[in-house]
Amino acid sequence: MTLSTRFGMVEYNEEDILTFPQGLMGLPAMKRFLILEHKPGSPFRWLQSLDEPSMSLLVCDPWAYVADYAPQLRETDETDLALTDSEARMILATASIPPGKPEGMTLNLLGPLVINLSKRIGKQIALDGGTYTIRHRVFQRSRSEAVAA
Question: Which residues contact 58 (CB under 8 A, 6 or more apart)?
């Protein structure tokens, strides 16, 4: 199959599709996605919507920037995803980078994307507690930003 996206023509097979049965937070109608490589060796990927080809989200491996990230899934989330201890899973965080200011990059650690790799289904979950935020700054604030704050 072929899809025309902001990245040009993308070839994919049916088994490449990830399904988010509940959609994503704020995007409930978008349920089918591909994960596209950003560039070789990069912790970043693109979550490309098949339902709306002009929509893609920058995502990354949260452990590339937050080594002690430890999201706790609820039993209902594991059930929704058919996850068992032996199921291969992937956890991604959406990333936001202000135009021209990569030092201002933030990660949404409060609402990670959890994917059951063998069943190709995913869910964006809302973690409990105040440990994580939706705008976790990856890089320390510059001295001038800290003074201004």
Answer: 38, 44, 45, 46, 47, 94, 95, 96, 97
| Structure-block tokens of residue 85 | 């201890």
pLDDT tens digits along 62-89: 999 999 999 999 999 999 999 987 778 8
What is the C-alpha to C-alpha distance for residues 16 and 11, in angstroms, rounded to an integer?
10
Contacts 24+ apart (CB under 8 A), 142-149: 142/103
How far is it, in rounded angstroms, from Cα 25 to Cα 111? 9
**Domains of the chain, CATH where assigned:** 2-139 (2.30.290.10)
Nearest to 127 by CA among 25, 58, 33, 43: 25
Hey, is 72 helix, strand or coil? coil
Helix (H) or strand (E) holding 7: none
Distance of alpha carbon 44 from alpha carbon 102, whole angstroms: 13
Give the Å distances, CA to CA, from 41 to 11, 36, 37, 77.
21, 13, 9, 30
Prediction pTM value = 0.86
Give strand pairing partners of 137.
Answer: 106
